Amino acid sequence: MIDTLSKIRWKTRATRVPGMLLAGLLIFPFLLLSQTLVNYVPVHHPVYDYLERLAVESAVDWDGTVQPASRFDVARALLQADAHKNRLTGVEQADLLYFEVEFRPELTALGLTSADSSSRWHLFSYHDSRFGVDLDPVLGVTASDGDTHLFNGAKFEGTAGSDIAYGFHFNDNTEKGPSIDWQKLSVPETGINIVKSSGGNEIEYSEVRTYLSYGSNTVQLAAGKDFVEWGSGERGKLILSDKAPSFPIIRFDYRPVSWLTFHYLHGWLQSLVIDSSRSYATDLPEEPRNVYREKYIAAHMLSVRPCAGLQVSLGESIIYSDGPPNILFLIPIMFFRAADHYLTHYSQNDGNNSQFFLDTRYDVLSHVRAYGTLFIDEIVPSEIFNPSQARNQLGFTLGTRVVNPIVSNVDMSLEYTRILPWVYSNSNPAQTYESDGYPLGDYIGQNADQLYAAVQWRPAGRFELSLYYDYVRRGGMTDVERQYELPSLPFLYGNIERASLKGFAIRYEYLHDLTLVSDFHWQNPYLNGGHYNLALTLEYGLDPR
Question: Cα–Cα distance between 319 and 173 in angstroms, integer?
Fold first, then answer.
């Protein structure tokens, strides 16, 4: 397979060299508009869930389809919440005051005046008209069922003049114990790259994220290494999630009017496919130098709000490989599938792996939201209902969230996800919908489904109690050659593995970034018997999950 892949070459070599330069020239005119600093809020920050709840209650106009969002976007939503305080419960008002302290600099720049002008504490903070930085430590420990997880690191973010913003987050992790999960394949937690292991009872790994950004009131442009989430879902996201380790990206977000937003990204993925033609031996016989096949993702999505309470997003992505970034996939408004046909002359073996997706959110009633995502990996429209000829390789999520239905400060979620066989896979191992061996989308993977339900109660500000239930079924995974044979294999073919998880969690954020979490649950993972477990976490500075 590797020798075959080494023969694949793009037929438009001349277009690749100036690709990044030309893409920059296409976007540069947008940046001549009035500037707005773009510092990003990490994808697991609790302010996102807070704004989602207020959006369901129609207290704010919040688009949570793409994360991370900028601090100014979050601050604008908090301004709306401040203007509609009469719609909020007492607990929601307390949380609003708490988040206003967190986002005080942006709120002040947007014109919010408050008797309380306090800002949150940082280990080190400096700001003037030319330079600004906020520095904090990252520390924490989790104890669970005889295992421990220690992490430490640092994070900082700031500004350079009035045009450029930046951020950096690094944490080093050590897990010890008899039952640590060193693969993290069938769980929602982010995948890892182990740098050191000791007999299966201890592993070490790290995660680094960073970005450099520039923007205006309507345009945001950034380059970095970070998580990006696209789509709807409480438990997982079909389009883009944080399951795979963060990877380098450039992103472009354009919002010319309040009812329309365009998103684009280009990412550099880890293929884990060794290029035998470029790998070579070193002076250490047992440690060759492995060079991996290049692998990329390009994706764009258009989100439209045709009326109040309804948002529809339509997008496309493509996984391509074997060469430097191609200019056709660096043009944000390119039709990627058509570009692929042009590059490969409709040859399946020389082509790339494209996908289409649709995401919708609809506020059915006051306090009730319905949402759904459709992810199409491959489909033949004329044969959709023909069992012998259909190749319906798609996944979908349907869910609903109810906020403050009868009892104040209570919300309930119910969600179902189904991913049919061969979604995310490809005959070319360098073009699967994965990075570092983990799905870019939902963690349950292909030929699986999931039912998730949760009830959350917030008796006081920053204090949350939750009950949750999660049930997953996973079918078999035979040789990828069956992906291209007819009739297609049925959903959940092969031996079915079942996993269930139900529990009770308490979360309290005592200070900004200082959080205590207690999680008592019963789980029945795929390969083990059911058992109870109590996990306690104390953390400072780590993005909460």
Answer: 30
